[in-house]
Amino acid sequence: MAKRQVFYSFHYDNDVFRVQQIRNIGALEDNKPVSANDWETVKKGGETSIKKWIDENLNYKSCVVVLVGSETSDRKWVNYEISKAWNDGRAILGIYIHNLKCPNTGKSKQGTNPFDKFQMKNGTKLSSVVKCYNPDSNDAYNDIATNLENWIEDAIKNR
């Protein structure tokens, strides 16, 4: 299977260590996350700068993978990324990451499905067509590692 170009959407402050674990699986294109310093520079440019950065980084991506932590669904820019990706016709999926251990905080509580906040033009919730996977609580990392490529391919086919 060809490696896909994927955009990861997540709450940086809460979940960066969990996200790094997923990025290190190696099944996908090597796309490094923005560093905390780089993100601060982007944020200093205001909303226009942030939207431009997101829009540029979404270009040429096959799929947006929303890594759902305890507060992800409440993040303004995650919601912008979901909306932008869906409206641009990109495949989207979610993965709950609360059972991945963070070296600072351990496991966290499960967040809410961010796709519940969006309605399609026909009134159907986006969560009824976009899957949000909840990996095995006993071995979340290996469940994600085993299934990530297939989940992405399924999202692309279903889109």
Automatic annotation (TrEMBL):
Name under which the protein is recorded: Molecular chaperone Tir
Any matching Pfam family: ThsB_TIR
Naturally occurring in which organism (per UniProt): Flavobacterium amnicola
Domain Thoeris protein ThsB TIR-like: from-to ranges: 7-101
Span of the signal peptide: none
Domain of life: Bacteria
